[in-house]
Amino acid sequence: MSNWGLFVGGVLLAGVAVAGWQAFQPRAAQQGHSMEPPDTSGIAMGDPIKQVILPASLTPDGTIGKGIFEAKCAACHGQNAAGQNGVAPPLVLKIYEPGHHSDEAFQRAAQSGVVAHHWNFGNMPPVPGLTRGDVQYIARYVRELQRANGIN
Does the reported pTM lie above 0.70? Predict the structure, then answer.
């Protein structure tokens, strides 16, 4: 057998060994990240779902984003992105952290809408009249709110 054949066989054997070892490892719970929406049964319809801690101040971009959010998003997602029970979810929640819902997810949601997948509020329709720049500012505002609430 050639050296190349031994090398390829060794790499293949090592890969199978690592895959087998990982398959038998206990599954650790994801730290601080839950795909389960919170229980809203004790919250009156239309009330905020999340208590949002506001940052001491917003960046200039966050301030612009807040104004756009209030004009285009707050009617459903509530003041300070706290959500509204029975209407729309809070965006200040681990489900919407940057590692799971990137800023581009906000862009797609505003442009094309979203099929309901974490909540039972129904599908989100597209938001007419928002540019990509507008949504970037909204995302910056939401990320500042998230950081103030321990979501990075």
Answer: yes
